[in-house]
Amino acid sequence: MRFVGRILTRSAPLVLGLSLALLSTASNADMERRSLGADPHGQVDIVNVSGTVQVRGWNKSEVEVSVDLDSSQKLEFTNDGRHTLVRVASPGRKSGHAADMIVQVPEGSSLSVNTVSAEQQIKGVRGSQRLQSVSGTIETTVWADDLQVKTISGDVRVDGHGSSNEADIDTVSGSVVLRDIAGAVEVGSVSGDIQVRMGELTRGRIHTTNGTVDWRSSLAADARLEAQAINGDLKFRLQKKVDAEFDIETFNGEIDNCFGPKSKPTREHAPGRTVRFVQGKGSARVDIKTMNGGVEICDH
Amino acid sequence: MNQRLRDPLDRALGSLPRDVEPQRDLWSQIEADIAASPPPLQNKVVDLSSIARSRRFGLSSRWLQLAAGLLLVVGSSFTTWVVVQRSVDEKVLQAQRTTVQQMQPVLNAMPASFGGNEVLGASYQKARAELNAEFERRVAELPPVTRARLERDLADLRRAANQVAATLGDHPNDPLLQQLLLSTYQSELALLGSLNTLSTPTVGADL
Description:
The structure holds two protein chains of two kinds. By secondary structure, chain A is mainly beta. Helix content of chain A is 10%, strand content 55%. Chain A has one helix at 2-30; strands spanning 32-37, 43-48, 51-58, 62-67, 74-79, 83-89, 99-106, 110-115, 119-123, 129-133, 138-141, 147-151, 156-159, 164-170, 176-189, 194-208, 213-229, 234-239, 244-250, 255-257, 264-265, 273-279, 284-290, 295-298. Chain A is elongated. Chain B is elongated and about 115 Å long. In chain B, 17% of the residues are buried. At the A-B interface, loops of A face helix 5 and helix 6 of B.
């Protein structure tokens, strides 16, 4: 009896693995797969309400879609030269089956993905990206082309390759993580926290109501960085050589400045603090304002 | 026919006497009565104090008359004012109630003033009310969890805007607060508008 138990215990992972493999095979077998020729630098629009959307850039001049649909759903997949449309539709239904979709597109494509609760994961697409979701998370990788992301409650994560581009990220309560990007960045949130680890910043604009900002970048010689918060705390680590003019002011928050000059009260008998100073040549400009949030600015 | 009716009437009128003679001479009796009557106040004792009293009373009476007139004017004016004021107050209250009822979604959506001093413009409020109405419609279509989170975030944003506006009311000349309030209002508008573009092309789409 003990022998049988030992056999069962040892074979359990194998049985589980085989079962998952069979399920996966069965699932793949249910997937609809279609492809169309496409412009290598064309526009691809993808729409899916719920489920997942995975987009992969490849070096073929075609778009291939793999998607699992139930009987109530239809796949609209069209191409008219430069523009390819991939859309899961549920005629007559407000919320359909969660469709998992994998779309492979020419890596130079410009991409637009629009979802409600579906999660988005994009890899290897080098053209511009315009990604929108209500509650689904968005993860993408970017190169030198522009990026625009909008979510309500979905979290956002962007990984760059050190190339300079323009990124515009707007969320309400989702958190934002940006890594290895460079260039111009605009980030906004209501309560979502913002974390940025980037190379050289040329233009930065950050605004949050209650979220915190944790920012690390270097500043281009003529960089402009503006940050605003109501209740959120703002923390900046400016790396490498800093040549900038700083103007930092809070109505009711503390300022911790490790560049040297200490903050002073904005006005008599009021809790607000302010500090203005020039670091190095002062060619760049940093402007930070908060109401109740604290500000921490440092070079390490 | 009228001629026929008029003739008997004329005949009846013509038959009436022209004068009526009195039965006796009344003037002789009237003259006798006048001659027999004593002249007024002829034997009356003159009381100077009563005259003074009378004069004083006369003066007081005039003052009293003047005061009564004044009182009447003031009273009637006050009565008129009360009636009118009550009517105006009721109209104002009614107008306020109506405005509040009409603007309730808007008032829920935003602070009503810019730092307590400057009322937001009508066109701004109208645009904001429209955005808010559309937002309410759109948010109802979202899954409950997302809807709850979004409503909570919008409430946070509005609370923050109210907080800044209230603080700005205490420090109306603070440029930092003005800047932050403007930015918060813009954020709210952006949030109200963003749901339109986010959910429009997907939900319930037909081929």
